[in-house]
């Protein structure tokens, strides 16, 4: 993308969305605007003086050099990255055309090489744009009031409700955008069904979903969603032997480009030839900014990059996911398996000889403690013979160790609370 166009497009997006301060998040300053620095300075000073971003007509009338470009399909992350790339390119040109010649004459060989290495490293750090400048709490009173007003008016758009009324209430309104949520359970207890239930609830509420399901094929995951939404017999769906085929055909007619604006993107191993990595997820979020929930059904199946042990690499992945969810303001549901040793430790039979349903405790994690430390919410799930329980093992609210009892009929797509709380 042309660097001059990027500058105009980014300022236009700031004006259109009335959000100057988001540039602070991406460490954008006046030096990044090579062709229209005066426009950036005007918008910055106007916002500081008047407490709000100026109207685009004010800026257009002030600067003939500014080309207003509304309705950009590119998000702030992409535009600021392109802007930083242009800044780094100019820096490299200046380095080699001016500074390098002077330093070459002033320095000895080793010193010159080290100087060059440091300069190039500085350019690499600039173009990566992975570290933000932070925001000065001491001077952002007006911004925080605007954020409070926005929360008061649009609170429902910052929280995604869960499928379970009691859980939504215990979490103070549901999953907040930017949250890292860990859903852990023993093997073959239905954690993928619960994760899918969370996904379809989010989608039905109007929030786009990006669902990574490495253990299933696309058809299998789509069939689960159809079962959870339309309650079609899952086994009969798999084998093509539905007894209510006409109802299924009619149900599917609503799934088309004209009637559905909210995306539910499913990616399985057939869509991930190089595996699932943090980089893949970030690229997908940039390409699909409408998605506000990410489901990773199988943390241990991700491609964990790193030079140390697999546990260390998993820890690195977990930390990167926490940053990713916050950066893109999405709810991240990470599904992970707890060890069979925990099931044996917690298990046993009741007086009637039935297996006791007992979700894993917070310390009974598998492989790496990072997933417990990084997640702001940890939900432990267990199920046996149609009875399930979700333990809130970690949360920001006072609801730690609260349990929600569920009736689970996966084959017909029913996962319902056994009872609803009146108040908390």
Low-confidence stretches: 126-134
Q: Which architecture of the largest domain would the CATH scheme give at its second level? A: 3-Layer(aba) Sandwich
User: Secondary-structure element sequence?
Assistant: HHHHHHHEHEEHEHHHEHEHEHHEEEE
CATH class of the largest domain: Alpha Beta
For the terminal residues, how far apart are their CA atoms?
Answer: 53 Å
Please report which band the strand proportion falls in: under 5%, 5-15%, 15-25%, 25-35%, 35-45% or over 45%.
5-15%
What shape does the CA trace take? globular
How many domains? The number is 2
Put the structure in a nutshell:
By secondary structure, the chain is an alpha/beta fold.
Sum up the structure in keywords.
single chain, 424 residues, alpha/beta, Rossmann fold, 2 domains, 9-stranded mixed beta sheet, two-stranded antiparallel sheet, 16 helices, globular
């Amino acid at each position: 993308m042309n660097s001059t166009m990027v500058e105009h497009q980014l300022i236009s997006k700031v004006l259109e969305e009335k959000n100057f301060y988001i540039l602070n998040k991406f460490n954008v300053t006046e030096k990044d605007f090579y062709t229209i620095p005066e426009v950036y300075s005007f918008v910055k000073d106007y916002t500081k003086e008047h407490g709000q971003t100026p109207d685009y007509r004010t800026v257009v009338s002030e600067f003939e050099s500014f080309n207003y470009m509304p309705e950009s399909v590119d998000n702030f992350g992409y535009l600021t990255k392109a802007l930083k790339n242009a800044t780094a390119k100019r820096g490299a040109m200046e380095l080699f055309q001016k500074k390098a010649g002077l330093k070459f004459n002033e320095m000895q060989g080793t010193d010159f090489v080290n100087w060059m290495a440091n300069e190039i490293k500085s350019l690499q750090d600039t173009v990566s744009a992975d570290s933000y400048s932070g925001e000065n709490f001491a001077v952002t009173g007006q911004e925080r009031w605007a954020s409070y007003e926005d929360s008061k008016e649009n609170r429902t758009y910052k929280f995604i409700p869960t499928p379970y009324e009691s859980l939504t209430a215990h979490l103070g309104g549901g999953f907040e955008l930017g949250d890292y949520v860990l859903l852990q359970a023993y093997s073959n207890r239905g954690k993928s069904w619960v994760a899918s239930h969370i996904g379809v609830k989010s989608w039905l509420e109007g929030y786009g979903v990006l669902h990574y399901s490495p253990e299933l094929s696309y058809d299998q995951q789509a069939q689960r969603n159809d079962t959870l939404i339309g309650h079609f017999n899952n086994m009969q769906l798999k084998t093509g032997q539905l007894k209510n085929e006409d109802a299924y055909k009619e149900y599917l007619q609503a799934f088309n480009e004209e009637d559905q604006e909210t995306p539910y993107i499913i990616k399985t191993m057939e869509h991930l030839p190089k595996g699932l990595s943090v980089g893949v997820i970030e690229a997908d979020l940039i390409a699909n900014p409408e998605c506000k929930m990410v489901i990773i059904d199988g943390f241990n199946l991700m491609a964990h990059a790193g030079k140390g042990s697999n546990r260390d690499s998993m820890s690195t992945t977990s930390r990167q996911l926490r940053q990713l969810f916050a950066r893109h303001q999405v709810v991240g549901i990470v599904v992970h398996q707890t060890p069979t040793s925990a099931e044996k430790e917690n298990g046993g039979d009741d007086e009637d000889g039935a297996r006791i349903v007992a979700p894993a405790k917070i310390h009974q994690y598998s492989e790496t403690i990072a997933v417990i430390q990084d997640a702001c919410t940890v939900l432990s799930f267990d199920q046996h013979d149609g009875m399930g329980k979700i333990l809130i093992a970690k949360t920001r609210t006072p609801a730690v160790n609260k349990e929600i009892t569920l009736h689970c009929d996966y084959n017909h797509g029913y996962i319902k609370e056994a009872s609803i709380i009146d108040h908390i």
